[in-house]
Amino acid sequence: MSIKIITDSSSDLPKNLQETYDIEVVPLNIQFGEEHYKAGVTLDNPTFYKKMRESKELPKSACPAPYDFLESYKKMDVDDSIIVLTISSGLSGTYDSAVLAKNMLLEEQPNRKIEVIDSSNGSPGMVILLVQAARAIEDGKSFEEVVALLKAAIPKTNTFILLDTLENVIKGGRLDRFKGAIANVLNIKISLRVDNEGKIEVFEKVRGDKKALREFIDSIGEHTNEFENKVVSLSHSNCEEKGREVLAEIMSRYPFKEGILTEMGPVIGTYAGEGGIVFSFESPVRNQKI
Predict the structure, then answer these.
(1) What molecular functions are annotated in GO for this chain (predicted)?
(2) What are phi and psi of 208, to 5 degrees?
(3) What is the mean pLDDT of residues 152-159?
(4) Are residues 103 and 217 in the same domain?
């Protein structure tokens, strides 16, 4: 008997970590016009960014069907316990779909141990939570202990998004095209964050690339001074070199134990737009400055 972890593709969990910790990933559905894809299965990241760049409208995402989750649950040995971590319910219906699948499984196997947890996050925030859970399992923690660990960590996990372009904000109707044009001329950069309800909100508007990036990184020190044994995770939106540089600067300024770099897939990548950077870290309380 063992504890298995299942997540969805909006976690953007790197392949090496999927394999190291044997984490099953259920893909979300992506739609460009009449074309339908499964993220990471029939649509890879390079193709996604190319299609998004060429499209006049933003792609739409849809949660996996309950049967997609049920199929993953049934891959596990009947003696295995299952922990499912999904993208924020404030961003997707994926959590509800996973819960429906859980109920379907329990109708057939009423004695199964399975917990579905709303991460209230996405991409790098989910990576941090998944790695914590996987390492707790390696350390011999029980099913109940791992579930409790995740539920305690979620309200402490911060996620910030720095946009390189306003194109997707304009396409998505969050910013008027005229105002967006003015912002571009004035080189105004917008940063977003995941709020306490797991939804995305505007955090700051700053003029100039360097100032925006500096304040973006400064926000870590404004929210926590606890770095011992902590992980920072950073996702880049089709800009690996930039992502590596930003992560290196974060690691040079703050004594995190580990930094994890990953590439944003279609779900969070649609919010961030090409060239965007998203990072997550743990603090005493999410979005509360110290």
Answers:
(1) lipid binding
(2) 105, 135
(3) 96
(4) no
